[in-house]
Design brief:
- With 394 residues, this protein is of the alpha+beta class.
- The chain is 43% helix and 12% strand.
- Strand 2 and strand 3 form a beta hairpin.
- It comes from Brevundimonas faecalis.
- This is Alkylation response protein AidB-like acyl-CoA dehydrogenase.
Amino acid sequence: MADLETFRAETRAWLEANCPPECRGGGAGEADMVWGGRNPVFPTPAHKTWLDRMAERGWTAPEWPSEYGGGGLNREEAKVLASEMRRIKARPPLFSFGVWMLGPALLAFGTEEQKQRFLPPIVRGEIRWCQGYSEPGSGSDLASIQTRAVDQGDHWIVNGQKIWTSYADKADWIFCLVRTDPEAPKHLGISFVLFDMATPGVTTRPITLISGKSPFCETFFDDVRVEKENLVGTLNRGWDVAKALLAHERTMIGAMGDTGVGRPLGQVAIDALGVDEAGRLDEPLLRARIADFDIDAAAFRLAMERVGDQVKAKQAHPAIASMLKYYGSELNKRRHELAMAAGGADALEWEGERSQDGQAARDWLRTKANSIEGGTSEIQLNIIAKHLLQLPGA
């Protein structure tokens, strides 16, 4: 405990000295997120400074091994770092599918060469990744994918289409499921490969959502060359990699329900509706709903920490990610429903200075996809019923 308290003191001092004021306070809206990549966009120079400083310590991936650029922290130290960042409302220095999804898969299934090649640049935010899983005819039934990789000796030629590929039009590389043995049962004959989105034959087309914006794209592969050195895991056993990565993706989506950083929902409501004579939100029913939400959010944050400890100790049930994904998605949707209720008619404004160009309404509409992406809520409930609760007939 003494060593941990020393680590906390040192971490607190370092964060105070190195986290720029521009990267503190408030939630990280879309315009404030740093995704890195070959053509990074930084809202301010301070955001680049913050990323560079955190990446130098490996704290963009604090629990990854230091030999791959990570922070080399143990679980308890990583929790201290997270709590100290919350204390000063430090915004995440990097948003990265490489950190959240691909990196853990590479650590578990990648070759040493692949780890050395890809993990350090991911930590530094130098490669922006997208995920090639869903297809027009293979959404919840992901194992029925038809994108084909034909063996050409030292490489494959890939043809097919993916859909709902988040940020495909901005990504540098893709981690992708392809069918390498069309004669095998659908869960077999799938391989997990990596390739550059600048490869000839790769095209993307954004899909506009009801919010007027969208991170999603259609992605097309026409005779795309993929080198065999970019196969992750065993040939035709990509479903093993895919399942492991899905657990990380679902935990990532579930983490959206953790609202520990950003403006408290109660403050958002007070700014919109004012306070009563006792200094409380001047809307008792909404006040009670927000109190319920805050309690549930705090409980969920503790559940996330507990599951993280179980994962580290290899004691977590494989299906627990579905529970986190389901509850976190619903919690995030509740938060934005409450934000809309607090904003009243002004929150419905689509454009204009009062509504910050309709940001509240657009964010609210965007959350409707939370219960679809990464596996629908219905699929998650089926997994929970069958594998966690073991209900008859599930």
